[in-house]
Amino acid sequence: MKGTASFFQELRDYCESVALVDCHDHSGACGPKYTDAIAAIKSGYFNSDVLSASSDADIAILDDTSRSLDERWPILERAWKRTCHTGYAQVTRRVLKKFYDEDELTLEALERVQEKLLDLTDEAVYDGILEQAKIAVRLGDVWPDVKKIIDGTLKLTPRTRLVISLPGYHGIRGYDGVQGMVAPLGRTVTSLDEYLAACREIFEVQKKFGAVAFKDQSAYSRAIDYGNPTRAAAEEVFNWFMEDPRRNAGYPDQIRPLDDFLFHEFMRMARDMDLPVQIHTGHMAGVRNDIVKTNAAGLTKILELHRDVRFDIFHANWPYSADLLYLAKNFPNVTIDFCWANIIDPIYCQNMFKQALSCVPHGKIHGYGSDFGGSVDRAWAHAQIARDNIAIALSDMIDIGYLGLDDAKEVARGWLFENANAFFRLGL
Ligand SMILES: [Zn+2]
User: Are 110 and 38 in contact, with CB atoms under 8 Å apart?
Assistant: First the structure.
């Protein structure tokens, strides 16, 4: 993408020179080794747009690698013609051009791609692409085997710092779930107090391993407007399912007092451990989910109560930009994180970057997070799009006389690198 403002190119070149903090990534291992050209261009987020433009039946055929490219191409072509202009499709186009030297998606192009598919399990190739994207460090939400953290054998992918995945710890519904969460400690818990102590121990060991934040994406499975129930209400649910391991608390009403209570307890632990909390808000991966329950505005009571916890609110709250701009402007403990959003909707981000500059302290913006698992080819494309979006937004603001080029460069550097480096105390 190109801006039309006078200083676009100079600012874009500057953005290219700035290293990135990748504020959110899911790569537990280097990979994949692509074996199918259609999977190489379609899997990941773009699959959702292809499905949105076709059907479950079409996706089943496209994913059936026992069928030839020839046989599957008419279905992909039909969907591509309906969805080739989304942000996700921009990622596909850029991957095609950069890694396979193809300008257009055609059957012939796919056949050529098939002959030179990337092998991202090769750590040198993987890290080489991160180097080309100038991704200095990544915050990895990788759902690790906690036992490996305890015994020190967990290996992270290149340039990755761990974040602590929270949802499983407060989403417990039954005895087996509880014991599963604490299993790495090699003990059985029998009460809410013992469970809380075990969770704290597990979080502490991850911090000691190098974790730089907590991450919660419960918005996929519940509304994020947490209530503030009493310990007694939570303990009643906990004790009810613990006294009979065959019981499971029902979603959503029965489980809620315990889930909400634990979330508050974990916010207190985050405060005590001095780790920021990243929270998923807005759009959800895949198709068919309820967006209303994910609006960051639902977090207001949490943000207002836990003033000593630093919250990094994800995905620019797409499509509720106004609500997140409000929260970041009004709560000293809230930052905006554009991870994933830059490819969900590039134009939304360009507009929101401009609006954020004019209403939110610019030191509270984190501009990039790849949000892929593996697939550094796509993380590279995503980094390009994020730099485009920021350069377009800020050069437009220079053109209307809002700020000068030097100031715009400083803001861009903050959004791509400095703000996240300071916020997560990465010490880069
Ligand atoms: Zn994510």
Answer: yes
**Per-residue pLDDT, 13:** 98
Three-state DSSP at 139 gives strand
User: Ligand 1 centroid vs 370 CA: distance in angstroms?
Assistant: 8
Q: Cα of 372 to ligand 1 centre, how many Å?
A: 7
Strand partners, 248: 174
| pLDDT (tens digit per residue) in 78-94 | 999 999 999 999 999 99
The answer to whether the beta carbons of residues 408 and 54 sit under 8 Å apart is no
Q: Which two tokens stand for residue 209?
A: 């391993």
| d(CA 24, ligand 1 centre) in Å | 6
Residue identified by tokens 């994910």 is 294
- pLDDT at residue 43, rounded to an integer: 86
Residues of the chain with pLDDT under 70: none
Euclidean distance between CA atoms 12 and 394, whole angstroms = 10
Q: By the 8 A CB rule, do 73 and 82 touch?
A: no
In angstroms, what is the span from residue 376 Cα to ligand 1's centroid? 14
- Order of strands, edge to edge, in the sheet holding 334-337? 20-25, 135-140, 160-165, 213-216, 277-279, 311-313, 334-337, 365-366
Instruction: Using the mean position of ligand 1's atoms as its centre, give its distance from the Cα of residue 27 in Å.
Output: 10
Task: Measure the CA dihedral 332/338/340/341, to 10°.
Answer: 120
- How many Å lie between the centroid of ligand 1 and the Cα of residue 285? 8
Q: Give the distance (Å) from ligand 1 centre to CA of residue 401.
A: 36
Taking Cα atoms as reference points, which of 324, 335, 343, 322 lies closest to residue 414? Answer: 335
Q: What is the gyration radius of the CA atoms in the chain, in angstroms?
A: 22
| d(C-alpha 103, C-alpha 109), whole Å | 9
Q: Ligand 1 centre from 371 Cα, in Å?
A: 5
